[in-house]
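Workshop exercise sheet. Pairs work together: one partner reads the sequence aloud, the other fills in the structure field after running the prediction. Swap roles for the next sheet.
Pair: D.N. / O.F.
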Amino acid sequence: MSTTAKKLSLKDKYQLLTRDLDWETTYQPMDAVFPYDRYEGIKIRDWDGWADPFRLTMDAYWKYQSEKERKLYAILDAFSQNNGQMNISDARYVNAVKLWIQGISPLEYDAHRGFAMVGRAFRGAGARVACQMQSVDELRHIQTQLHAFSQYNKYFNGLRQFVHIKDRAWYLSIPKSFFEDAMSAGPFEFVTSISFAFEYVLTNLLFMPFVSGAAYNGDMATTTFGFSAQSDESRHMTLGLEVVKFMLEQHEDNVPIVQRWLDKWFWRGYRLLGLVGTMMDYMLPRKVMSWGEAWEIYWEENGIALFNDLARYGIRLPRHHEVAGKEKNRLTHELWSTLYNFGNALSLHTWIPTDEELDWLSSKYGEIFDRIYRPRFLYWREREQAGERWYMNRLPLVCQTCQIPVFYTEPDDPLTQCVRETRWNGMKYTFCSDGCKEIFEHEPHKYCQAYIPPQQIYQGNCGGATNIFEYAAWLNLDYKVDTSEYNGSPDQQNWVRWHASKIGSTDEAA
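Structure field:
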């Protein structure tokens, strides 16, 4: 009597295509083959307890991604052929693209390298497959971003140097230090840091509210690759939640270790998010959502709900989360003021918001903006119109942990600069916050080695530069072409000329 073979379920098929390809080593002990997944102190009882959220096999993955690629590059080609750069809201918007390619795109490549590295460190097949998928995703993301932004590089200054300045520019040490911190950690901390802080906290705010703003400003190239990547980001966020829950469920001794990581990487991710918030509030000519509103939706509602779910494992909200709530109404104003002051050493342009934009900021941030920040911007505008555009010609004091210049104010006093100090091994170190100071004090041997750009400049290690203008030249930045004030820049003058020509051609056709 013949019988028909039972059709395998998707779960069983996935198990055969991934987990059943794994094996126990014989001529070398498993601890020697995978030496890094235990030294952090994380205890794993059963690697088969890893639940794969999406159960993608490699053949399904390539089919799924190739379909997205066909749609993406069709739109990118149409954007290029139709001179899509002429249809954006204003040339000021391109400076947000510049900050993206300089500060965010290189992190995608770092994530690709990082997941390829830590995937090799896990002895569980499920974790290795998940890291492999994400590593390929991250490589795809930087490739699509570079293709999308290449159109702008043909017409605007400040994009061509992103590889050269990645390891040299003072403001790019902020995102760079974040990823180098993660990549020099153990495998479990790396996955926690990137899948939780980078994916759940940071890129969620980047690929949703900011990319929506890109669409509203006519940038269909950024919008298309952003939404194409968002399905990947959803998978990455799910991986982050899975790895946290997996560690917590495996052993009770993992709880305090994971809690410390969540504390640390929430704060590091939040500090890095200031760049995204500033892009939303100040670099989008057409506004969609304020940083304060985005923080309320994506963290105070969604993020806190996540921690409420983790409470059953003994996890509490990360330290200093309440500080982020206090700073949400002033974070971006303080950061934009700093970028404006140091605009002579940026590979992008800065400007004072228009009256309409100031009114929008007042409607979103209320009394604190009108009392503290609006008068500041109006004063700087007066100085610029009088031919006295203000630049800070000295080098800033930089936080030893997050490497952001120490410009933030006290959580409960927006008129007092927040500065923290600690002494270790005979040296004094400076920080922008209690959160950064505590991170340093837990691992001083790690953070005392941080490459701090102003210190390196003063030591003569940046091409021999002795001031901020020589430093900008060492970065290969053309003064008042790649850098400085937007008004009067070649980007602004070209934009006016292009549109005057476009209007003239339209009139003649009519």
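Discussion prompt: The first strand starts at residue 409 and ends at 410. What would you look at next?
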